[in-house]
Amino acid sequence: METAIEVRDLVVKRGKQQVLHGISCVVPRGSVTGLLGPSGSGKTTLLRAVVGVQIVGTGTVTVLGQPAGSAELRHRLGYLTQAPSVYTDLTVRENARYFARLYGLGATDADAAVASVGLASAATQLVGTLSGGQRSRASLACALVGRPELVILDEPTVGQDPVLRAELWDMFHTMAAKGTTLLVSSHVMDEAARCDRLLLIREGRLIADDSPTAIRAAAGTDDLAEAFLRLIKANTGNAGSTESGTRTNEGTAAR
């Protein structure tokens, strides 16, 4: 399978603190790859490095055959940040149409993107009046409007209800089936099972990189949450305290 993202020996430091410790991984094209890990583990830093907006110490990140951050990638990559990146004084539709114009696309494409994230009924609302979950979806519409080859999503389903979360994951897999590559960060364990491939990161180190089925087999358990705990224990010698434990199902975290 062709490679969409290749990360080799990536080291990132902030001041004197090392955030990523020699991360190496490959994300295949046309897949939904999940990046799992607790808060502060380095997920967002790794995503920023892939997008090309993170200053790195050493190592390389290659995206769609180009160095991360290359000008050639600007219209080939969509990026959803954790914080909604839309204009609060514009409506949902106006935001989508603005971003569509940046890609040389029209109103029809913008409206289709809004509908695809379940916001057609809120299209004329000012973003500033939306709930947090709706704002995230408005940002997602803007990230997808250009039909990018690669989509980087940082916690895209936080604050969404279970039905909408399921619909969004169905959409992600439909996109992947059509050739789009998605790299999705999450701490929700039932979302891990929805991915084609998983990257488990803890304290800036990659401790698992395989399919959910292979990770379960390697850990000797059918429970992904328990598999992650066993892998963490095998790699760190510490399964974690109750505070850093793993819970399953809705709203659960790989900790």
From TrEMBL:
GO terms for molecular function: ATP binding. It comes from the Bacteria. Gene3D superfamilies: P-loop containing nucleotide triphosphate hydrolases. CDD domains: ABC_DR_subfamily_A. Keywords: ATP-binding, Nucleotide-binding. It holds the Pfam family ABC_tran. InterPro entries: AAA+_ATPase (IPR003593), ABC_transporter-like_ATP-bd (IPR003439), ABC_transporter-like_CS (IPR017871), P-loop_NTPase (IPR027417). Residues 5-228 form the ABC transporter domain. This is ABC transporter ATP-binding protein. It comes from Plantactinospora alkalitolerans.
